[in-house]
Amino acid sequence: MSERILSISGLRGVVGNGLTPDYLTRFAAAVGTIANQGTVVLSRDGRGSGEMVRHAVISGLLATGCRVIDAGIATTPTCGVLVTHLKAAGGIQITAS
User: What is the residue-wise DSSP string for 6-41?
Assistant: First the structure.
């Protein structure tokens, strides 16, 4: 199993090797639990793996009763602005670094 790192910067790891659809769904469900059935903004970069990650994250969030606003492909600052503008409980940006 690949190493996953959780820090103030977010969750980091290799998609498909540690960051599996099952793990991502469970992680997003934990985030959704913290959001307490609120609205969560989701956006991603244009990388090919982003679509699989997006589906897993949406599944986890919806399983906890969250409302998901999928902003599609957008920058990290855009996700933050949308969270503030929409008064969302939080936001998830899917990107690599």
Answer: EETTEEE-EETBEE-HHHHHHHHHHHHHHHTT-EEE
d(CA 26, CA 87): 24
Question: What is Dmax (Cα atoms) for the chain?
Answer: 39
**pLDDT tens-digit map of 65-92:** 999 999 999 999 999 999 999 999 999 9
Q: Which residues of the chain are modeled with pLDDT < 50?
A: 1
Annotate 12-37 with b (16+ C-beta within 10 A) or e (fewer): ebebeeebbbebbbebbbebbeebee
Burial class (CB in 10 A: 0-12, 13-18, 19+), 54: buried
Residue 97 designated active-site: yes
Identified catalytic residue from 2, 43, 49, 97? 97
Hey, what domains does the chain have and what are their CATH numbers? 14-94 (3.40.120.10)
